Amino acid sequence: MSDEAATRWKSTTGPDQEVWLPRPGDVIAGRYQLEHSIGDGGMGAVVAARHLQLGEPLAVKFLHPRLAADAASVERFFREARAASRIKSEHVIRVHDVGMTEHGLPYIAMELLEGADLGQLVARGPLPIPLAVDCVLQASEALAEAHAAGIVHRDIKPSNLWLAQRRDGSALVKVLDFGISKLASVEGDAKLTETQAVFGSPAYMSPEQIRSAKRVDHRTDVWALGVVLYELLSAHVPFDADNVAGVLAAITADRPHPIHAFRPEVPPALEKLVLACLVKDPARRASLNDLASGLRPFATPSGLLSADRIDRADKPSVSLIPPAARPSVPAFAVTETVLDLAPTRRRRMWLFGSSIGGIVLLGLGALALRAWLASTGPVSTPLSRSATAEPSDAPSAEHSTFESPPPPPVTSATRVGIVPSATASAEPPPEPTPQPRPPRIRPVPSASQPVRPAPPTTAPPISEDRR
Q1: Are 224 and 278 in contact (CB under 8 A)?
Q2: Which residue has the higher pLDDT, 459 or 234?
Q3: Which candidate, 270, 200, 268, 274, places its Cα nearest to that of 238?
Q4: What is the distance in angstroms between the CA of the first residue and the CA of the last residue of the chain?
Q5: Are residues 48 and 166 both part of a single domain?
Q6: HSE, side-chain direction, 13 A CA sphere, residue 206
Q7: Which of 170-174, 282-286, 379-383 shows the lowest mean pLDDT across its residues?
Q8: What secondary structure letter does DSSP report for 424?
Q9: What pairs with residue 60 in β-bridges?
């Protein structure tokens, strides 16, 4: 380490810190080489360092040995570091690592920032209204995500809001010391001013935080944001007194000083919004959504983006930790199943429908055929005759529903139904050759063949012997 760095290290540390704080050039955890001090106080110290393997600059924060001896303080130190690492907003300082040194000092390795905190800027005078509004909106965006994760900062003040620059030159606000102010409530630490020397100040505490720092919620951060915005616009705090007790009494009982008394050009609507954040009753105090919506008319396009994100993230009851993944069927498997089973189901339904339709058609056809046969009855078949043919039996009436053709004229030799005598030829007449059934056409008798009524069909034929 150079002499300049060593001199700067000693100039920022007191005698007590020189005893417990690691020296410049020391290597922490085998990978963080300390370079120079950034700041220190009653709670600990922050030192600039460099990662030996990556060559990346970073900051290392150490907890004071007085607090490191308390197991509850150490646990809260690490728990808040883990909570800050869960917030993925660009407006929250990134935490890289936590651990213990060889001498038992808890440390947090975090992002090293370039720029200045808002406390240093406001010490020079009030900020331009658009810049002050954008800084509060960006800090509110970080707090909205923290509140959604159930984390309350409890130490919002200008010195904990770091103003840096993006690569495009736009302003970027980072919230520091996330949740470290919880260590201010360590039992046995009665020096409020010493505890708040680095991590907070009574001027930014809400009335409920003054009564009980352990029983506050996200609304105490809204109060602190109102105090910060008041100070950025006017370079004054809303409650002032000669001592800490007077400040605490003014916060709990007095009305804030009007902003226009310090800066007349502040719009009345903006001043009214600040006062809405400083309502002593937390139930009637403005929310982060109210603050973001009220600041829109005074914000730049970058600030409007933060306001939009606040509207989506300001849900304190919702955790940022994703729920456990449920087992599910991959999308490609579902697609293959649908493509494989859909045609089979359609084919089965088509075959089932076709079978039912065929059965119905067959039944209707059978019914139609039966009705047709009942209406028409059996069809008679006329016998063909030749001029020399022997007489043949007439068709029976039980097989025909049409009028039978007129019988041929009866002669002495033949008669329908008469058995031939003994003098007749013993050779029976040849049986007629069966002919194919002609169409059902009623024969029309010729003029030479007289039409005679058909013989009665009910009486049996009379044989010659019975006579």
Answers
A1: no
A2: 234
A3: 274
A4: 161
A5: no
A6: 30
A7: 379-383
A8: S
A9: 47, 109
- pLDDT band for 294, please (50, 70, 90 cuts): very high
Higher pLDDT: 165 or 197? It is 165
**419 Cα distance to chain centroid:** 106
Measure the CA–CA gap between 291 and 308, rounded to whole angstroms. 12
Considering all CA atoms of the chain, what is the largest pairwise distance in Å, rounded to the nearest integer? 170
* Residue closest to 199 by CA, chosen among 180, 218, 173, 175: 180
| Whether residue 122 sits in one domain with residue 103 | no
* Residue from 120, 117, 121 nearest 139 by CA: 117
Would you name the residues annotated as active-site residues? 155
Q: 202 with 247: CB under 8 angstroms?
A: yes
Please tell me the total number of residues recorded for the chain in this structure: 467
Q: Is 86 within the bounds of a domain?
A: yes
For the chain, the average pLDDT equals: 74
> Which residues neighbour 300 within 8 Å (Cβ) at sequence distance 6 or greater?
130, 133, 134
In a domain, 104, yes or no: yes
CB 222 within 8 A of CB 229: no
CB atoms within 10 A of CB 265: 8
Provide the residue range defining the domain that includes 75. 3-111
DSSP strand pairing (32-40 vs 27-28): antiparallel
